[in-house]
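Quick one, tokens below:
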């Protein structure tokens, strides 16, 4: 509790905001990449402490939001097989695909189970040897080591009724894609501390050099975020573009070496579709050839998932930072958490869900 109080200390937060107001001399636009950071910014009103010249926009760092509709359709299709138990994190259940969502698939009789770790799904496969247990493996670098460990343990112990439906993505290529996108307004990044805790900072350092933008690795509490914002603005004001680690209590320069080794032994870098953004080169992970037996797409002959599927949702523009959630014409009207048009309104890390929860359904009318 003392630790949380330190990083949620109102006096410290207001002091950082005051220093920021004294530092900034011209307009700047920063993007916080992580959906967890977006929720913290809105929950604690950090955006309302910032000087008018500073604008925060919200990036694609919500793993649920970027999982393609076609892959959700494949997960739904698997639930229609009587031999399959489909395991997923809970926040995936209400994310819409073209053919509905996993919650409706469960209501229709599919065996869909919420787990808290891929190792829970592996344990279930051991207990249910006559069933096929499929874990919906989504996420950024933070979830990849555990998903890799599950496949590794399944192979090592001969659990042949376990497989992964994989939608693993990488944050660095997404940041690169945003900076290369026409009309990108991003002048500096707040990078997600939990991802950097796994990967280290080398990739982000290279991004700074390539694009000449500052990147500050930042935590998730109010003092963390305001400190990261202040550091980024100082760099911009001074004409610098460097990697700063403002989350040193969790992030080491080389990251989590054992976790990286496990990930690399099971997964390889591939092109992946991001929901609302299309295919991003070298932006995802897929199972290596020697783990092909644990690839649910191959095991069940699912084929390539159809692309697209978000004709009514403007989530891609939200994740690129070109549209604020409450600027979407459907926000709080046709699109609400109980009836989302797309993933950003229903995910616990989605920017639209954050605006709806902390600013209200009428935020777009103000």
């Amino acid at each position: 509790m003392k630790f949380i109080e330190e990083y949620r200390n109102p006096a410290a937060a207001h002091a950082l905001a005051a220093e920021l107001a004294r530092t900034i001399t011209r307009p700047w636009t920063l993007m916080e990449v992580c959906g967890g950071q977006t929720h913290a910014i809105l929950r604690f009103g950090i955006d309302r402490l910032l000087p008018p010249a500073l604008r925060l926009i919200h990036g694609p760092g919500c793993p649920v939001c970027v999982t393609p509709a076609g892959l959700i359709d494949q997960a739904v299709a698997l639930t229609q097989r009587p031999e399959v138990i489909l395991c997923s994190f809970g926040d995936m259940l209400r994310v819409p695909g073209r053919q509905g969502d996993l919650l409706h698939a469960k209501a229709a009789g599919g065996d869909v189970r919420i787990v808290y770790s891929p190792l829970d799904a592996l344990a279930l496969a051991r207990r249910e040897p006559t069933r096929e247990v499929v874990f919906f493996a989504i996420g950024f670098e933070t979830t990849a080591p555990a998903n890799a460990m599950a496949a590794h343990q399944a192979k090592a112990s001969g659990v042949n009724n376990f497989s992964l439906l994989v939608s693993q993505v990488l944050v660095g290529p997404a940041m690169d894609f945003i900076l290369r996108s026409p009309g990108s307004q991003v002048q500096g990044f707040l990078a997600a501390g939990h991802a950097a805790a796994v990967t280290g900072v080398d990739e982000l350092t290279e991004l700074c050099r390539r694009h000449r933008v500052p990147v500050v690795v930042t935590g998730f509490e109010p003092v963390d975020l305001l400190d990261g914002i202040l550091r980024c603005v100082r760099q911009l004001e001074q004409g610098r573009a460097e990697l700063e680690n403002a989350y040193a209590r969790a992030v080491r320069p080389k990251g989590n070496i054992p976790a990286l080794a496990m990930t690399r032994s099971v997964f390889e870098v591939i092109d992946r579709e991001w929901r609302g953004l299309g295919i991003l080169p070298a932006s995802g992970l897929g199972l290596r050839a020697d783990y092909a037996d644990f690839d649910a797409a191959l095991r069940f002959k699912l084929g390539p998932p159809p692309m697209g599927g978000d004709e009514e949702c403007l989530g891609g523009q939200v994740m690129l930072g070109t549209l604020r959630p409450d600027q979407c014409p459907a926000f709080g009207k046709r699109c609400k958490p109980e009836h989302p048009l797309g993933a950003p309104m229903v995910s616990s890390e989605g920017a639209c869900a954050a605006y709806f929860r902390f600013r209200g359904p009428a935020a777009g009318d103000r």
